[in-house]
Write a structure and sequence with these properties.
The complex is a heterodimer of chains A (259) and B (257). Chain A is 80% helix and 0% strand. With 259 residues, chain A is mainly α. In chain A, helix 2 (42-54) packs across helix 10 and helix 3 (57-89) packs parallel to helix 6. Chain B is α/β, with parallel strands linked by helices and 257 residues long. Chain B folds into 2 domains: 2-65 and 143-256, P-loop containing nucleotide triphosphate hydrolases (Rossmann fold, 3-Layer(aba) Sandwich), CATH 3.40.50.300; 76-140, no CATH class. Helices cover 41% and strands 15% of the residues of chain B. Chain B is built from 8 helices and 8 strands, in the order E-E-E-H-E-H-H-H-H-E-H-E-H-E-E-H. In chain B, helix 6 links the parallel strand 5 and strand 6 (175-179). The longest helix of chain B has 34 residues, at 223-256. The interface between A and B is medium-sized, with 22 and 23 residues.
């Protein structure tokens, strides 16, 4: 098969597999194999999703969640890249911060909500800060690694050809780390979505997480699934969007489209 | 020249005294670990030598004394071919128009004019090394340093690149110091061949290569070439045997400790 043909086949599978899953689900719920009280038919869920969209409920919650992700992710990205670069460049800083990061990083992010509420005004800001924590670590880790993995020979050659100080940083170390920074940002964005939904379930009255939880509590199972679907779609779109941006911004990375 | 290695300092180069003439193509050969590359790196200023000095005669302020072609090409993967070639000029603040004109000229010389907008990962090994050569030449150094630039290439590509190098050198008349582990290559390219001893590297012999110019791969058929190759090889062989014996000695010493 030609390369183009294979790529088309890959795309086709990527589209066909979720459709096949939904079809099986539809069939299982329709024939009573699955209890529709807990597993309503996807076609029913689609109708509910349409209603949520038409009466505006969905858009309000979606906008709230998107705004929170936007703030959290920006915070995590800016601080994570800055701290990660510094840790990549200065060994002392890296050795000092590594154990602290290793200890804090595995703590489930939601648990930072009470702590954040002591440190910053509770409510919206605490929520944004909590959501940023895990993303921050992911971005910082990958950025540090990105700086460290740069070929030493390339750095040496750059120095030999007169790059030093700021110029060495801007023309060599930063672009050298960028592919890793992008991977970190992509992971961080995904985790921002995961955590923001979790935090909304725990503490918010608006946002997709809150909508999902509310629907479950009043047993509007179809609305719950509709929200699930929106969250899943959002995650996929954010991830693919950033991957496409990477392919555009980093044309020197080989075969970036295939990854 | 001493080195820190596992907490012990190792003498890499010892009492090297070498004069390179302007416009000369000087080849340096020697057994592995004789410090050929170290010598080049000292000249390039990439290593600070512990004792001694490197003097390069220069009368053109603003151009660098040396430019190195690295064995593994060491191009910046995020820069296009053209921007790799202009990198040194950019760092020295040369105006854009002049930079790009120089890049065009050098890329034409190494036969890559059509590939200016490519990224290194899109090129073959031989093409990458051509970019490395264009990058060094664009800086118009007093001395062009080449650290086994063709060692990583396949035999056919290497043969073509050797002839290209001779052509470029004949055109530009640069002073070249060229490190190689291949005697054949040294004899094909060099005006003189410097043989280094096993570690610590000292100058064992300097052989003038009286093969005339312009030179091509056909010199391999000449009797002078064969005789010279035989002479240097028997000398080099002794050094290689000595180097291997020294390594064995060091190993058994370590076991006894």
């Amino acid at each position: 098969m030609s390369a183009a043909g294979r790529r088309l086949a890959d795309r086709w599978i990527a589209i066909a597999s979720p459709i096949a899953l939904l079809a099986v689900w539809e069939w299982a719920s329709a024939t009573g194999l699955l209890r529709t009280a807990f597993f309503p038919r996807p076609s029913t869920i689609a109708v509910h999703l349409r209603d949520l969209a038409l009466d505006g409920t969905l858009w309000g919650h979606l906008a709230t969640t998107l705004a929170r992700i936007g703030w959290s992710f920006s915070l995590a990205a800016v601080l994570g890249v800055a701290v990660g670069l510094a840790m990549g460049l200065w060994r002392r800083l890296r050795e000092g911060l590594d154990p602290v990061f290793a200890a804090i990083y595995p703590i489930p992010s939601v648990l930072f909500l009470p702590l954040a509420s002591f440190l910053v005004p509770p409510g919206e800001i605490a929520l944004v800060v909590t959501t940023a924590v895990t993303s921050f670590f992911l971005v910082a880790f990958t950025t540090t690694h990105g700086v460290r993995q740069i070929d030493r020979l390339v750095v040496e050659a750059a120095r030999h050809y007169g790059a030093g100080g700021w110029r060495l940083f801007a023309a060599v170390l930063l672009p050298g780390a960028l592919p890793y920074i992008f991977s970190g940002l992509r992971l961080g964005l995904g985790f921002a979505l995961i955590v923001v939904v979790a935090v909304e379930i725990v503490s918010a009255s608006r946002g997709l997480g809150a909508l999902l939880w509310l629907s479950w509590q009043v047993l509007k199972v179809e609305d719950m699934y509709a929200t699930f679907f929106v969250i899943a779609l959002l995650g996929a779109l954010l991830s693919y969007g950033l991957a496409a941006l990477r392919a555009r911004l980093l044309p020197w990375v080989p075969d970036v489209g295939e990854r | 020249m001493t080195f820190e290695s596992h907490g012990r300092s190792v003498v890499a180069l010892d009492r090297i005294s070498l004069q390179v003439h302007a416009g000369e193509f000087l080849c340096v050969v020697g057994p592995s670990g004789s410090g050929k590359s170290t010598l080049l790196r000292v000249v390039a200023g990439l290593h600070r030598q512990s004792v001694g000095e490197v003097r390069i005669e220069a009368d053109r302020p603003g151009t660098p004394l040396t430019a190195m072609v690295f064995q593994e090409h060491a191009l910046l993967p995020w820069r296009t071919v053209r921007d790799n070639v202009t990198f040194g000029l950019e760092n020295r603040g040369v105006a854009r128009g002049e930079r790009e004109a120089r890049a065009r000229e050098m890329l034409a010389m190494v036969g890559l004019a059509r590939f200016a907008q490519y990224y290194p990962h899109q090129l073959s090994g031989g093409m990458k090394q051509r970019v490395g050569i264009a990058r060094a030449l664009a800086n118009d150094p007093e001395v062009l340093l080449m650290d086994e630039p063709l060692a990583a290439l396949d035999a056919q590509t290497r043969a073509i690149m050797q002839e290209e190098l001779l052509r470029i050198w004949a055109t530009l008349g640069k002073t070249v110091v060229y490190v190689t582990h291949s005697l054949e290559e040294a004899l094909l390219l060099g005006d003189r061949v410097v043989l280094l001893t096993a570690r610590p590297g000292r100058v064992s012999h300097i052989y003038p290569v009286d093969l005339g110019r312009p030179r091509g791969l056909e010199v391999r058929a000449s009797p002078v070439y064969g005789a010279l190759l035989e002479t240097i090889w028997s000398r080099l062989r002794e050094e290689v045997v000595r180097a291997i014996a020294a390594d064995r000695g060091a190993d058994s010493g370590a076991v006894r400790e």
